Amino acid sequence: MSPLSAPPPFRNPLAEQRADPHITRHADGRYHFTASVPSYDRIVLRSSRTLAGLASAEESVVWTRHASGDMGAHIWAPELHRADGAWYIHFAAAPADDVWRIRMWVLESTHPDPHRGAWIEKGRIVTAWDTFSLDAHTFTHRGDRYLAWAQHEPGTDSGTAIFLSRMADPWTLTGPQVRLSAPEYAWERVGFAVNEGPAVLRRNGRVFMTYSASATDANYCMGLLTADDTSDLMDPASWVKSPEPVFAGCAEAGQYGPGHNSFTVAEDGRTDVLVYHARPYERIEGDPLRDPNRHTRVQPFGWRADGTPDFGTPVRT
């Protein structure tokens, strides 16, 4: 029985009312989980020796929004990463008096335990344009550190597209910033023309980058970009975009709008795990961003014979 047909070994949802989930497994085997909270006012962190243990792990508030000025509203999509001997949290925030002027920011802690150390504000990630930007995702490949993120490009009708740049350090971009994907297909433009939430996975001689598309309601879904492991990742021509969503809502499973994913591995170190949020109902009253019930979910996924990921469909609650 394949991992996609076997009963999922995880509790789902793993964490209720936690959107834009990010789970990383540290070198010591501990899992660290952070996500957006419905009030969009703080950054929380859970840690556990097991993936399942994150469901009941004590949650720490490691940082709270400013009462005024920068980083005062819309605290969105935090990601925790280890780099250069320190912990970093990349997240989005807006000024308290201009709540849609969303930009990307970075926190740093040099303490070995991300729950206990003081978090220092390293500042804003400065991009080529001072426009709406969010969902910073950092990764290393062949000795270089990169940042993938979503941003509005001036002069386009897209809400956000996916961009890539090399980094001088975990809070500074260097060199050119290139667009890898803009919302061009109909399934990327339902409600809003959006590509956002990039996440990188490297397997089978290729670099895979998932992203999320359309409005954050039941139409939200995941797309996929693929590049050869040896190619120049900064060349947009190196990336091939899948013409159809690779993960979408499933009425049979009762899960809608899956997306803003990350990747981790199970305790065996071999089983790949998809981390994402979804809602257990299709209809939403009012603004989807004000509906709190995007729940964090986890499920194993497999690989096709051609070496590409097979995410399947959302599992049942």
UniProtKB/TrEMBL annotation:
Matching entries from CDD domains are given as:
GH43f_LbAraf43-like
> Would the keyword Transmembrane helix turn up in this protein's UniProt record?
no
Q: Where is this region: Disordered?
A: 285-317
Q: Does the keyword Signal apply?
A: yes
Name the keywords, alphabetized. Glycosidase, Hydrolase, Signal
Kindly give the InterPro entries that the UniProt entry links to this protein. Answer: Alpha-L-arabinofuranosidase, Glyco_hydro_43, Glyco_hydro_beta-prop_sf
Which intervals carry biased composition (Basic and acidic residues)? Answer: 285-294
Q: Where does this protein have coiled-coil stretches?
A: none
What's the family?
Belongs to the glycosyl hydrolase 43 family.
Which protein, by its recorded name, is this? Family 43 glycosylhydrolase
Whose protein is this, by species? Streptomyces argenteolus
Phylogenetic classification of the source organism: Bacteria, Bacillati, Actinomycetota, Actinomycetes, Kitasatosporales
